[in-house]
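Morning!

This is the sequence you dropped in the shared folder:
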Amino acid sequence: MIDMRIQICGVEFKNPVIAASGTFGFGRENAEYFPLSKLGGISSKGLTLNKKDGNRGTRIYETASGIMNSIGLQNPGIDGFIKDELPFMEKQDTIILANVGGSTLDEYIVSVDKLNDTNIDMIELNISCPNVKEGGMAFGIKAKTAYEVVAAVREICRKPLIVKLSPNAENMMEMAESCAKAGADGLSLVNTFNALAIDIYSRKPVFNNITAGLSGPCIKPIALRMVYEVSKAVDIPIIGLGGIMDHEDAIEFIMAGAHCIQVGTANFIEPTISMDIVDGIAKFMKDEGIKSLDEIRGVI
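The structure's back. Tokens below.
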């Protein structure tokens, strides 16, 4: 018998596969393709205190072995999420991570305080979004600033607190250590890479904000290296993501030190991919005689 359960900060995931924020909405669309109870968890669309319409202009742009996005955290706001989306998610028999962003420290604090009184299982604090003009990645670049944000949120947060790190940080190791010292219960990494695309015919950037977030299989080797390095630097659980397209990619991240993994861009290519990855990990464990993922976590 194999055991795919994972414990993070007292929360039990039935398996290590989580749908990544911003690629799965709140699960409604994908629920038409497979039972969401098959997943270990769902990280919500990035939430802000107030409703946001997101960025204008091009939002998604395909590039070699990946995509670039500049959605701009379009979302219903915390109150809209609690009222209209959370009741659906609560019925899906899977762990709920509320991904929270903000333009100011006060917005983070008020948002998390509102979520304290809900049935979500975890907060995923997004200090790493590269496609908004203020907040977001600005908090995730300098370790000192990130420490201040995480420490302030930790003081009022009554849920397990996962901090999502940007690969664009000045020093990833220092960033991870600062967040852990500030009270993060775990880390998720990596978010998208800041990137540029140009329309040579209009002679202008493709995106209104000039740069946008790059994701997909093209970033996987770099994301994998960062997960490996961070897992050696801190003693808190890691959720690994970045270009995971199949169960073999997922297992690589676990072997690099991740407790759970998140599937993002692949959801746009194949809506059932997360379910396929769960099944693939299970088959790999059976074929290799692995009873628990603890046996292979961080083996390199």
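Headline: The chain has one domain: 6-295.

More detail when I'm at my desk.
O.
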